[in-house]
Structures are given as structure tokens and as C-alpha cells.
Amino acid sequence: MLAFRPVLLVTGVLVAMLGATMLIPMTVNLMSPDDAHRADWSAFAIGAIVSVFAGGGAAAATWGPIERITVREGFLLTACSWLSLVVFAAVPLALGGLNLSFVDAFFESMSGLTTTGSTVVTNLDYAPPGALLWRSMLQWFGGVGIIIMAFAVLPALKVGGMQIFKSEAWDMTEKHIASATQYSLMLTQIYVFFTVLCFLLLVAFGMPAWHALNHAMTTVATGGFSTRDASLGAFLTVGRAPLDLIVTVFMIIGSLPFGIFLAALLRGTWSRILRDSQIQFFLGVVAVLTVIMMLRVLTLFDDVDAFTAFRLSIFNVVSILTGTGYATTDYNAWGPFAVGFFFCIMFIGGCAGSTSCGMKIFRFQVALAAIRVYARRLAHPNGVFVARYNGRPLTDDVFVSVLSFFFVYFATFATIAVLLAGLGLDTLTALSAAGSAIANVGPGLGDVVGPAGNYASLPDAAKLILSAGMLLGRLELFTILVILTPAFWRG
């Protein structure tokens, strides 16, 4: 029988912890020299009180040892905890100086925790500093949350082929780490290290410390929330160091499996990072796509040199590919080829066990392996062929899981796009917004939701649909869809 006590207990503790972190942006607002911004402290104070009392109350009412959590309870816990965190994280955004309705605040909160990066906030340049920091913190929390979930939850739930990482993740470190708690803590420490390193480099190369802090958090989290309306492009003034290249490097780092970093740290086998087939495939995809777009930019603009074309290409390719969604330019102006190009690559993601979004790159590897084996069996009916991933044979359940994920992924994308079109959105906006939501990318295409646009003008119904799409995409679809089936609640 499904036990709700562990679900309520863990969710309550997480919500209470979230409420405690609201004291940080509250303090930032209190320290602001602007009277209007200083008055915004109360929004976070109320949010903290509501979250701590609601979460603490749920935890206190269900307090006690948890002997075990079944697979069904794991699905329910994952869905309930993420949705609850989004709802409570939206409270200070709805009450604060951003003047958001609760639907808009919910959308912004969902976009933050799922590290999507879509925003309904305008005039970021003049927004209260606490609100800007809270948006960045939400993405940072979501990034580390998805890393831990990718190693501790999804492999056990066998979601979308993630079961191939269940033994692999632990085999690398089982001699060094005694528990899942210690494992999660060490992954978090690596995540903090890269965030601090990114911050220091951004400051060293000329970005003001306040903006560097926010961008470091949202870069390593591959989230894309910025403190300026012009996104990262606002800091790329003439004569300034190439901050976009620093951000590009850390977007790539955020898209690599953090378990590999941990194994390399514990065993000293740093060469494993470049020998991992998933990392090799991902970096190869980045290189190929960058060259394609670089050639396009060079042929499109006569006054652009090769290095500038490289900077523009690799930054925007990595930003979309990793689901970060930063912008340094409006690539809609690069012509129909660029629009179609970026629309297609938004569905490709980074590595499993990273902060990146989209369809993780290992799924493309598994699909290609299945195609190769199928083709060889057609050519040699009596032959025996085994598909492998990282040197390990792939079982039929992995193939079925991955191919099912592909089907459900694109079926969900199509459904969201049709619903958005039914609300009156034009075709390009509906398709790109649906793709951006399910792939957790952030900016879409076109004038409305493109890199130079904003989601604020969309109807509330569209924002709620897109919020559902963000959650589905971030939690790997089946984590949410399985609890909507009647069979889940029987027994």
C-alpha cells in the first residue's frame, strides 16, 4: 500500500529549508540604498514564515524514522517535492516589488527551479536586488537538485534509460563513500566549487561582483536567468574581456556528469573524464554544431572576423544545447537557417548527471547503437551483435525505456504546441515555446518569446501549460506521467 508519511515528511523538510533560505534575499533588500527596494524585504519575510510553518508543520506531523521508500513512493515524492517547492518559492515573487500576479510568479518560480530560464519579468535593470538574487538562487538550487536526483532517484526508478547509470555511478565510488547522503554531499561540494570558480573568473575579467555572483549561479546551473534585460550581452561592451567565453566554458562544465568529477577526484583518474563515451559524444556534437554555425555567420556577415564568428557561434550553440538560454545577440536576425538550426538543437541536452536540460546525450547514443545493431542484423541475419554503452552491453529494457522516452517526449511537445496554438499563439511562437518548455531551454524563437522577447504577454492559460511542460521536461516525463495513471494508485 502507498505510504504518504515519508512523502509528507521529506517534502515538509524541503519546504521549510527553502523558507529559511528566503532570509538571504530579505537581508539583501534590507541593505539596499534604494527605499523602494528596501521595503521589498517584507515579501521574503512573509514567504519565509509561510514556508517554514507549512513545511515544518507537515514534517512535525509525520516525524519518525523512514525504513524504506518504495519505487511508487519515490515517484510521488519526486513530483510532490518539486511542485511544492515551486509553489512556496513563488510567494515572495508574488508579494514583492516585481508586481507579478500569482500565475506569473508561479511561472517564474517554475522556470527558476527547473533551470529553464524563461521569464515574465521586465525591467530587470531596475528590479529589487533581493528578487534578482532569489531568481538566481532558485536556479542554483534546481541545478544541484537535479544532479542529486539523477544519481539517487532516477536510476532506481528506471526513468528513460537512466537505469544504466545505477550500478555505474556507484561502482566508481563505492570503496570511498559509505552512504547516499555522503555521496550527495560530495557532489554538492563539487557544484559549489565550480560556482565559486566561475564567480572569481567573472570578477577577475571585469564583471561587477553582484552581477558575477548571480551569473555564476545561473551559469553552472545552466539556467540562464540574468540580472539585465539584455542578458549577458549587457556586459560585452567594446574593449571588455571575452566574458562570453568564460561563461561558455562553465556552461559546458555544468553539462558534464558530476559523478565523473567525483570519481576523478577520489581516485585521481582525471583521464577518465575525456575517456567517457558520453562526454566524448557531447563534446563532439558541440564542436560540429559550432563549426556549422560559424560558417553560417561568416557567410552572412562580411565584417565579422573568424574569431568573432567563433565566439558568437560557440556561445549561442552551447547556450541552447545545454538549455542555459543566455543571449548575447538576437539570432533571429541570422536568417531562416539559424532559426531552424536553433529550434532543432534545443531538443538535444547535455550528459546524464549534469545540470543541463533536454534529452540527455546518452539517449542519442543508445538510439544510434540500436539502429546500428538493427542494420547489421538485416545485413547478416545469422550474426550475433551486441550494442554497448561505455563498454557495457545494453539490455533490451534499456532500449525499450529510451525509445519509449523519445516517443513520449515528442508526443508531449506536440500536445503542448497544439494547446498553445489553440490559445491564439502564432505557429512559430507555439512551437518554439513548447520546445523551450519541454527542453527547459528558456528563450524560444520569434519576436514574442525569442532571445529579445519575453513571456509576459502570453495569456495565463499558456503560462500554466508551459509551467507543466517545464516540470515534465525537468523530471524526465515518466516521473510525473506515471502518477497520473489509475494503476499507480491501486494496490
If helices are DSSP runs of H or I spanning 4 or more residues, what is the number of helices? Answer: 24
Rounded average pLDDT: 88
Helix content: 55-70%
How far apart are the termini?
A: 6 Å
Quaternary organisation of the protein chains? single chain
Give a quick account of the main beta sheet: strands, pairing sense, barrel closure.
Answer: 2 strands, antiparallel
What is the CA-atom radius of gyration, in angstroms?
Answer: 22 Å
Secondary-structure element sequence? HHHHHHHHHHHHHHHHHHEEHHHHHH
Report the count of strand segments: 2
Strand order of the largest sheet: 1-2
Instruction: Name the beta content range.
Output: under 5%
Net shape: globular
Question: Which secondary structure elements does this structure contain, and how are they paired or packed?
Answer:
Layout: H1 5-21, H2 23-30, H3 35-38, H4 41-61, H5 71-95, H6 102-113, H7 129-152, H8 154-157, H9 166-171, H10 180-204, H11 209-220, H12 243-254, H13 258-267, H14 271-275, H15 277-300, H16 306-321, H17 336-345, H18 361-379, E1 388-389, E2 392-393, H19 396-422, H20 427-438, H21 446-449, H22 460-474, H23 478-481, H24 486-489
Antiparallel strand pairs: 1-2
Helix pairs in contact: 1-4, 1-5, 2-4, 2-7, 4-5, 5-6, 6-7, 6-22, 7-10, 7-11, 10-11, 10-12, 10-13, 12-16, 15-16, 18-19, 19-20, 19-22, 20-22
